[in-house]
Design a protein that fits this description.
It is a multi-pass membrane protein. One of its GO terms (cellular component) is membrane. 71% of the residues lie in helices and 3% in strands. It has 486 residues and is mainly alpha-helical. It folds into two domains: 1-277, no CATH class; 278-486, no CATH class. Helix 15 packs antiparallel against helix 17 (394-407). The protein is globular.
Length: 486
Amino acid sequence: MNALWLPLLVALPAVMSLVVAISGRWPNLREGVSVATALALLAGIAGFIGDVTAGGRPSFTLFEILPGASLTFTLEPIGLLFAMIASGLWSLTTVYAAGYMRGNAEHAQTRFFVCFALAISAAIGIAFAGNLMTLFIFYEMLTLSTYPLVTHHGDAESRDGGRVYLGILLTTSIGFFLPAIVATWLLTGSITFTDGGLMAGSGLGALGAGLLYALFLYGTGKAALMPFHRWLPAAMVAPTPVSALLHAVAVVKAGVFIVLKLTVYVFGVDFLAETGASQPMMWIATITVLGASLIAMTKDNLKARLAYSTVSQLSYIVLGATMASSLGILGGSMHIAMHAFAKITLFFCAGAIYTATHRKNVSDLDGLGYAMPITFSAFFIASLSLIGIPPMGGIWSKWYLMEGAADAGHIAIILVLSLSSLLNIVYLLEIPTRAFFHNPRPDTPRNWQEAPWACVIPLSITAAGCIVWFLYPLPFTALLSPWAPQ
């Protein structure tokens, strides 16, 4: 396909957000436009699969912002994967959001769908970014476009959560990410993403490279590395479709995608392996994996538990990058997709439970599996995928992450991944166990049933996706062939 399509695809959701705004008085039309735009976006991105898989790197420059810093869009394997996930799950999330927002009589529904479209536009801009300047611009656009979604309810709790969200993400990006971009330009004379990385000829030693790498990773606050992770649990005050957007479709996936992209195209896997510059951040990621899992075990609120689960799971992808192994990059890239399908299913289920019963806490879910068998079965399937148990797709990303750790000689990382999986069992499987094997609470009405079909159908499809990715992992390895075992 012509590279001119890249900026057009980035602009498509933003332009169509105007149509969504105009059609606000007709909810069916508004949501139909959103779904149609999502499907058109997915089809347009899919048109590049053959070119990128064959080794092509379509690129298009719109204009130069500063000397040597242009607004450039380039498509490569990891970016194509992220764009496919974001656009593919957008349509399902829109259908789900229609059922959730109407079922809970939420206000300002048109504003919600407009901001949702703008956020997807920013996420696609991140996926297609050809240099650090373009990446930074769309990163900030994503933060600003999702802020109204986080504060959607407009109450004091939402405003407080929004301040934490905006404060941490803007502070880290301006305080860390932007200086790291300037330092990269001064060291290498370029900010363009390059196969093999920019740092090999920079003369930067292990200490300097380690500090710059840490600046980039902490500057990418959306990756939720401790201690800059609090924005993510704080954002759980938003409606559940927003939580799905944050945790599976756009925001956090943008963060860990950027970590992978910086590792591969700015530093280079070989450079990091030779200098060991990424190892300090590798251990920060292990602390985040285990620490967030332990915190998740203490949370009774279902969305809070899932939020800390996301903090932990994101660091799996950061581990894949920081262990400086091609197999680690493959495992981290695959986990973007595997985690997306599993985690969006879990949040869809949490929202469906709230819509049908208005219960938010794990301790209140006893016996609800008989009233909502589809929802809790989907929750069980997605939980198994996150844990990494076949026949669910999550096994493949964890398999390659462990292979990458063994390849890089990091045996301790294999133990961390194994221990984390055991912790996942404790805090995830408690939910379907309570639902199916505990007696209902005495105050549980007998007439409770599944949430509206617009909620149940999307969560059923994403749960099925967890199984499909187990059966058909080869499309991932074909796309990510530069890091796949030969």
